[in-house]
Amino acid sequence: xxxTLHGQKAVTSDNLSDxxxxxxxxxxxxPPPRRARAGRAPLEQILVDLGYLSPGDLxxxxxxxxxxxxxxxxxxxxxxxxxxxxxxxxxxQQWGASPIDLTRDSPDPRLIDALGAEFCCTKVIAPIRRxxxxxxxxxxxxxxxxxxxxxxxKEYGPYRMAIATxxxxxxxxxxxxxxxxxxxxxxxxxxxxxxxxxxERRAATWLFGVLFAGALGLTLMPLAVFALLSGWAILTLVxxxxxxxxxxxxxxxxxxxxxxxxxxxxxxxxxxxxxxxxFREPDIAARLVARMSRLHYPRELLDMLLVVEEDDHVTRDxxxxxxxxRWMRVLPVPDGPIRTKPRALNYALNFCRGSIIGVYDAEDAxxxxxxxMIARRFAKAPPEVVCLQGILDYxxxxxxxxxxxxxxxxxxxxxxxxxxxxxLGFVVPLGGTTLFFRRKVLEELGCWDAHNVTEDADLGVRxxxxxxxxxxxxxVTQEEANCRMVPWVKQRSRWLKGYAITWAVHMRSPRKLMExxxxxxxxxxxVMFFGSLSQYVLAPLLWSFWLMVFGxxxxxxxxxxxxxxxxxxxxxxTAELLNICLAAWAVRGESHRFLIPWVPSxxxxxxxxxxxxxxxxxxxxQKPFYWDxxxxxxxxxxxxxxxxxxxxxxxxxxxxxQRAPWIS
Length: 664
Prior knowledge:
The protein is of the alpha/beta class. It contains 26 helices and 14 strands. Helix content is 48%, strand content 12%.
């Protein structure tokens, strides 16, 4: 009999005699695929001898370990072939260490502080006590104990190892130092790169001063002030349109030369940890499990954390009733003075097992092969590529007009503009989901700014400032489009508020920012952030110029010649045609083609952003760190997702002649 494991044939106990590896009626030692240390029995032999593991299950696990970067124990536990307690006893016998019950021998809080609570969580160790000049450490991965000792404080050595389960160590650390860890999560980013040091009173004074000066100017010199603001709005319109055109042409040209070869699989698949922050999501738990279960990545390499606020009993109760698989776990986040998504991510990162860290939203439906593509690209990408951003799309574009326009906007941004920006080497303002990072660099940067409500865009800027690169990968994650007017304005105002905060933080020292980015990327950053914000806030001034198109009087008409008026009308018409062409190109694919007739109606969609822009200005002063929650799971109750997506998305291939064989 043969079974299939992740698309490959595996050996079972029924055909062991044919392979002459073991006799069916006897337990024999299976030669380990890896060299064991001298004098130490292999773990697999101990598990079989103790009766914890059958020979058939062992051979399946050995086959999996040959192509995956995973420990044998993790593979066995993930498939339910052994328990954590059985693994602990086998490891204790292998390493000659004693198993320890952390409910009786609890860790010493002073020693946890000396070693660092985050370090203990990451390395899965817990300092128990110090007796006779020796520090006893509970360890879940004894094979790493020697390397861990190199990073431990010398003054507390020597260290002796005891064996405990990973869950017991984590629970014991949280019981004693979770408050300390959540405070650390709120301030992981250096103060000069964070908005937490923002002086709200000073910011309010400056903003009110600008508004007062504008109102006074419109009262005393209305024509001059109106002309000045109109000129700035027109200039930013030209610059943002030029940047979009440049990015669109770059993306269209690179897509022409995309190779159509299928990339080879990665030599050894890594462990990928996915964090899914959730807040007040009572109706989405079952759908979340179903959508994430569509991922084809090996379960022993998939570590998914459902990050929930500790006092969010509605979501926690819903998850408690759901049938969560072994590779999913719920992580409550302690309460604190702020409650933001980046704060929760910083806290949850301490408990991630993978070398690659990903982020999904609760309503996401990722492509089934997405994690395989991420693993392949990270394996072949140069070291400076530390972040991969997937494409975001919507699975409910037919709900109403707003959902259609939202889908067109996202298609233009993620399939046309953003890939072009990445190809040009500019700062990539990241999206909030389908993000994947090399863990080491993410921790080096201080992770996310816990106070920034657009933590993703801010992290994209900090990555670029340190010389790292972000690439877009041709894999799609579908989301639920926000297609109610008031929630749409709230969500967009939060994004704009975060963009404004991010721009202000990084412009504290413009000279240092230019040194980090270089002149070319510095000015592109100004256009993307400050130029876009200006467009949203000053949009009513631009609309007023359409009066001249219809022959109606305009305040600045007396200041312009007929030639200048004609040129101005040409600029507006060209900008509108550019938006239409980019949007039509972005939705030309088979799955979005029905949206092409709706592209011209985008002219009526963008004015909603002006309302969001002025709401963002108000919140910048009154509540800069307030997270306006967007409710999910409203319009996806009857959505049926396909088993796989056949659409190929050409986005990140290099231009000729440097062809990249990793993109299909």
